[in-house]
């Protein structure tokens, strides 16, 4: 196994099975962040992740972290909080603000560079990338964004500036996505936060099988149209 240098003249990727097991499924470097290449990457279970100043790095972890929407872990404390939630949640109201929040709210530094932000803005304009926003009054206090692949949603990043704000974003999205026919959320690499919310690890080969099936199954029409998802008054 070796790290593959991508060509700028072809959007083809090597097989994810050739990814280095350590660190976290590093597969290739180079290429670009154009919409066609990004969509090809997601269709093959690959995503970009690199630090400022580094070349573009492409990953396909084994194992893969996933969350079945109906298995979101709603703790007792979170259930009590949500019953009296001060938040409202919207879909695709403020993509730019969400990706900016995800970039800024990182104590360890951000991988959401200007080039990454521009690339996902383009995917959003094309109808492939989406945001979930959590508001307290008129202030954005949390949210998440990712890329839709039919009945699978590839989560990219989330942020929180208020109590349980990112948990609220994911919980409300899981319920809405599941009702619309969504089957699986890709969490990429497991961490303590996503694990506490119900994410688990599965073998990469299993994830790729789910991906190949679910990305071909569209969810209900107009699901991604900008709209409210939750209001505490409802």
Automatic annotation (TrEMBL):
UniProt KW keywords: Acyltransferase, Cytoplasm, Transferase
Free-text function comment from the UniProt entry: Functions in the N-end rule pathway of protein degradation where it conjugates Leu, Phe and, less efficiently, Met from aminoacyl-tRNAs to the N-termini of proteins containing an N-terminal arginine or lysine.
Catalyzed reaction equations: N-terminal L-lysyl-[protein] + L-leucyl-tRNA(Leu) = N-terminal L-leucyl-L-lysyl-[protein] + tRNA(Leu) + H(+); N-terminal L-arginyl-[protein] + L-leucyl-tRNA(Leu) = N-terminal L-leucyl-L-arginyl-[protein] + tRNA(Leu) + H(+); L-phenylalanyl-tRNA(Phe) + an N-terminal L-alpha-aminoacyl-[protein] = an N-terminal L-phenylalanyl-L-alpha-aminoacyl-[protein] + tRNA(Phe)
Enzyme Commission code: 2.3.2.6
A GO term, aspect molecular function: leucyl-tRNA--protein transferase activity
Family membership: Belongs to the L/F-transferase family.
HAMAP family, sorted: Leu_Phe_trans
Subcellular location: Cytoplasm
One Pfam family cited in the UniProt record for this chain: Leu_Phe_trans
GO cellular component term, pick one: cytoplasm
Keyword field contains ATP-binding: no
Gene3D superfamilies cross-referenced by the UniProt entry: Leucyl/phenylalanyl-tRNA-protein transferase, C-terminal domain, Leucyl/phenylalanyl-tRNA-protein transferase, N-terminal domain
Signal peptide interval: none
Protein name, per record: Leucyl/phenylalanyl-tRNA--protein transferase
Enzyme class, spelled out: transferase
Top-level taxonomic group: Bacteria
GO process terms (BP): protein catabolic process
């Amino acid at each position: 196994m070796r790290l593959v240098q991508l060509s700028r003249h072809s959007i083809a990727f090597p097989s994810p099975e050739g990814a280095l097991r350590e660190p976290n499924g590093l597969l290739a470097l180079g290429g670009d962040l154009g919409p066609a290449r990004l969509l090809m990457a997601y269709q093959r279970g690959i995503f970009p992740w690199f630090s400022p100043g580094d070349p573009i790095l492409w990953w396909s972890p084994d194992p893969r972290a996933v969350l079945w929407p109906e298995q979101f872990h709603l703790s007792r404390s979170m259930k009590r909080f949500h019953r009296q939630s001060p938040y409202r949640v919207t879909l695709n109201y403020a993509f730019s603000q969400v990706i900016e929040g995800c970039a800024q709210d990182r104590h360890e530094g951000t991988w959401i560079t200007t080039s990454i932000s521009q690339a996902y803005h383009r995917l959003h304009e094309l109808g492939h990338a989406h945001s979930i926003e959590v508001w307290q009054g008129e202030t954005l206090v949390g949210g998440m964004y990712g890329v839709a692949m039919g009945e699978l949603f590839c989560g990219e990043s989330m942020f929180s500036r208020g109590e349980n704000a990112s948990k609220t974003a994911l919980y409300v999205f899981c319920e809405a996505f599941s009702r619309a026919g969504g089957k699986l959320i890709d969490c990429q690499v497991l961490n303590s936060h996503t694990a506490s919310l119900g994410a688990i690890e599965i073998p990469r080969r299993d994830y790729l099988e789910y991906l190949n099936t679910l990305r071909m199954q569209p969810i209900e029409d107009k699901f991604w149209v900008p709209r409210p998802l939750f209001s505490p008054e409802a």
